[in-house]
Every structure is written in structure tokens, then in C-alpha cells.
Amino acid sequence: MNKISIIGFFAAIFTTTSFAPQVVKAFQTKSVRDLSLIMYLILLTGQLLWLTYGIFNHSYPLIVGNSITTLLSATILFLKLKYSPKKN
């Protein structure tokens, strides 16, 4: 593994773990009122595109990082839809 790949893996680790506290908090509090649905939809779309890009370019830091980050973002999005008050 070269130095650039190591930097990529560290970037993926930090970026990915940044979502974990929000997921845990949303599970614990069941409160997602202040989270932006549109922001998470845009973010999830971008992550899926980065994942696709990483797959086509055989970039393991992008594949690993965006796979996990996509899962965490999708979890937050699911919780947002599940716990948001229903409009009549």
C-alpha cells in the first residue's frame, strides 16, 4: 500500500466515523426534527456516486469509506422518515 492510499484510508475513517454519533443520538432520542431531509437526500446521492466512481476506478479507500458512510446516511434518512411527525 502506498502513502496516497494510506491517506485515503485515513480520510475515509474520519469521514465515515463522523456520522456515527448522529446515528446513535437519533436512535437513542428518536428525535430527528432538526435534521434536513433534503440535505440527507443530496448527501446520499453524492455518496452513491462516489461509491460508483470508486468501484470503477478500483479505489479501495473510496469503496470502503463510501460503503459505510452510505449505510450510515441511509440509516439517518430512514430514522428521519420514521420519526418525523406525520402531516395530516
Automatic annotation (TrEMBL):
Could you confirm whether the keyword Cytoplasm appears in this record? no
| Protein location | Membrane
Topology with regard to the membrane? Multi-pass membrane protein
Q: Which UniProt keywords apply?
A: Membrane, Transmembrane, Transmembrane helix
The signal peptide, as residue positions, is none
**Primary site of residence:** membrane
Q: Which InterPro entries match?
A: PQ-loop_rpt, SemiSWEET
The reply to whether Transmembrane helix figures as a keyword in the UniProt entry is yes
Molecular function terms from GO:
sugar transmembrane transporter activity
- Would you name any one GO CC term? membrane
Q: Which residues cross the membrane?
A: 6-24, 36-56, 62-79
This chain belongs to the protein called: Glutathione synthetase
Q: What is the originating organism of this protein?
A: candidate division WS5 bacterium
